[in-house]
Amino acid sequence: MEAVKKRLNENSLQRYPSYKDSGVEWLGEIPEHWELKRFKHLFKEKKITHNIELNSGSISFGKVVYKDDEKVPLATKKSYQVLNKGEFLINPLNLNYDLISLRIALSDKDVVVSSGYIIVQNAIEISKSYFKWLLHIFDIAYMKTLGSGVRQTLSFTHIANSELVFLPIQEQTAIATFLDDKTQKIQEAIKIKEQQIALLKERKQILIHKAVTRGLDDSVPLKDSGVDWIGKIPEHWEVKRFKFTCDITTGSKNTEDKVENGKYPFYVRSQTPEKINTYTFDGEAILTAGDGAGVGKVFHYINGKFDYHQRVYKFSSFRMVHGKFLFYYLRSEFFNVALNGEAKSTVDSLRLPLIQNFMVTIPHYSEQKRILEFIDSKSEKINKTISLKQEEIEKLKEYKSSLINSVVTGKVKVC
Questions:
Q1: What is the CATH number of the domain that holds 115?
Q2: What's the gap between Cα 332 and its chain centre?
Q3: What pLDDT is stored for residue 150 in this prediction?
Q4: Does one domain contain both 280 and 340?
Q5: Is 127 helix (H, G, I), strand (E, B) or coil?
Q6: For residue 262, how many C-alpha atoms fall within 13 Å in the half-sphere facing its CB?
């Protein structure tokens, strides 16, 4: 990351010769020659027009994106308003429900959007690229404190008298060019690290898969497992049906100790909270969901609490196999095999007979232990590397945010 900072600061950032107090808390001091203008003197609210021929759109984290027109009823689309490229879109709805999303975007496309959104056009000559960055800070630092009503919703009137900085157009353009270039470099650095993390996770998964399906010794003789999707396994390993390796139970329909939204680390069907129970388990267990978003994924627990409903399967009381070995095996094989085989349907689901008869490869108990020690050791090293790269990504994001704020409000001089 230091190398990235060095490249970004090839021309060292300097301060302006003199500053003045803007009188606006979120802006602080600004360069002496900069002015303040009210939002309504820079932008005007666009009158609503309609055009069902345009694609539907919306705002998502500071960008205008297309919506799936097939999912937008014609009657709804007829009420949508036209947003043209070069206009600013503001999502003024329910600010108190979401303080994270970026709610202002400079549109790069012609679409129709909800009439609940505010569309503004520049009322005087400005660099739209510069104001894209300034309104980004305005959104984060100030706009979310405005609004009224239970749902804290804005109108143009709420922001009309807000004060923004205004500087010479040439300076606006230069600052926008600088930020476009530098933020792109930071994003490229972040993307590279994200790709590295993905490769590390893939490497870890391959390592686990090989260890639990072939063992650690590549020289051992192999035999046909008798199961097409398993293929060959070490000659001394066994293949057993899942039901012979552990006890399989499901959550109950009882509503005692129900949790409305599920507060422990396990996925739940939140649309049916009456079927959710908080369950405390002393011992080792593996959990998977029979349906819903988490179907086929497996979780390993020791002496923990989890949310437990009637379509969650719990595996415990392990026989012939370490619970953690079985967890790694299932995580490696279960999802793809189960959901691309007999269980595949319009709605993904795992039924008890399929789980009971799922085939598991089993080495000797002592060999399982050696495999687990190998996996844990290798995984720890990979996890540490992933963690370091995630920290570097967060630092890059923080640096990007600090850079945007400093440059766009004049705390540093770049032109």
A1: 3.90.220.20
A2: 23
A3: 57
A4: yes
A5: coil
A6: 16
Cα–Cα distances (Å) from 120 to 64, 104, 108, 156, in that order, read 14, 10, 14, 9
Taking the CA of residue 259 as centre, how many other CA atoms within 13 Å lie in the half-sphere pointing to its CB? 19
Pair 174, 247 in one domain: no
Calculate mean pLDDT across residues 204-219: 93
Domain that includes residue 137, residue range: 35-166
Q: Does residue 394 lie in a domain region?
A: yes
Q: Mean pLDDT highest for which of 21-35, 279-293, 332-346?
A: 21-35
Place of tokens 């049916």: 272
Question: Which helix (DSSP H) or strand (DSSP E) does residue 90 occupy?
Answer: strand 88-90
CA distance 51 to 103: 23
Total domains in the fold of the chain: 3
The C-alpha angle 142, 147, 150, rounded to 5 degrees, equals: 135
Mean pLDDT of 190-198: 98
For the entire predicted model, the pTM comes to 0.79
The confidence score (pLDDT) of residue 153 equals 84
* Helix, strand, coil percentages, rounded to 5, for the chain: 40, 25, 35
CA dihedral 319, 324, 330, 332 (to 10 degrees): -140
pLDDT tens string 319-330? 999 999 999 998
User: Alpha-carbon distance 225 to 230, whole Å?
Assistant: 7
Give the bridge partners for 304, in sequence order.
281
CA distances from 181 to 74, 178, 225, 395 (A): 41, 5, 57, 19
**pLDDT value, residue 272:** 43
- For residue 310, the Cα-to-chain-centroid distance in whole angstroms is 28
Two structure tokens written together for 217? 């010794």
Q: Are strands 312-316 and 276-289 parallel, antiparallel or unpaired?
A: antiparallel
Sign of CA dihedral 323, 325, 327, 329: negative
Write the DSSP string, 152-204: TB--HHHHHT-EEEE--HHHHHHHHHHHHHHHHHHHHHHHHHHHHHHHHHHHH
